[in-house]
Amino acid sequence: MKKIFAGNWKLFKSPAETRAFMSKFKEVMGSVTGEVVFFPSAISLEAACEAVKGSAIKIGVQNAYTQASGAFTGENSAQVVKELGGQYILIGHSERRSIFGETDALIADKVAYVQSLGLTPMLCIGETLQEREATHTFRVLETQLLLGLAKADKAKPIVVAYEPVWAIGTGKVATPEQVAETHTDVHSILTKMGFTAPILYGGSVKPDNAGQLIKQAHVSGFLVGGASLEVDSFQKIATV
Ligand code: PEP
């Protein structure tokens, strides 16, 4: 299976900055053997989709609502993402859960809706430091998967990103042993549920730790925040 290297740009990069990044990244795409996906902010989505035309770079958004249109002020339409040529939707990122109060029930509806459009949901799961220290990691991840995938179609593509909350944007990366152990757990939960999905690791992935992490059991690629904002660092990660 091809590795997947995804960049979550959060609330960074204007349309002009997006175009400039993509034009440079297209030049180095030849060195990448895996699949590359960028999640720009919704306002830069059209610029990103236009800029990657003719290349293998894939695009998605960081959140989309459960309906195509309607009185949902401030939301994104996955239908429009599809029309613009986007292929992925990030769902349930820890910042969506903790800052915007997204529940597992809402996340389950989003996953199902995105799949119904023929787009690929990238479902983010992860435990807090408190939950890890209390040895609740397995239970937390199992619950997030059981609830988040409750309405998902097992026959349609889905990607899971394991992102320990304590490692996101903190510079504190999970150790290779923690990644191997947790990815093995996530893989076995998914298998028991009847799902086959690539499992990406996310949380302070950088060029100097990516090589070690990619070798761990059931690591099918990375979801990268900070280090995906620069062509050079993301290229290094995507060519490990
Ligand atoms: C993320 O935003 O999903 C993420 C993993 O961020 P960072 O790589 O900066 O920790």
Overview of the structural elements:
There is one protein chain. By secondary structure, the protein is an alpha/beta fold. The chain has a single domain, classed as Alpha-Beta Barrel (TIM Barrel). Helices cover 40% and strands 15% of the residues. The protein has 10 helices and 8 strands. It has helices at residues 15-28, 45-51, 78-84, 94-99, 104-116, 129-133, 137-148, 176-193, 207-213, 231-238, and strands at residues 4-8, 35-39, 58-61, 88-91, 120-125, 159-162, 199-202, 221-224. It has an 8-stranded parallel β-barrel, surrounded by 5 helices. The two termini are 15 Å apart. The model has no long low-confidence stretch (mean pLDDT 97). Bound molecules: phosphoenolpyruvate. Phosphoenolpyruvate (PEP) binds next to strand 8.
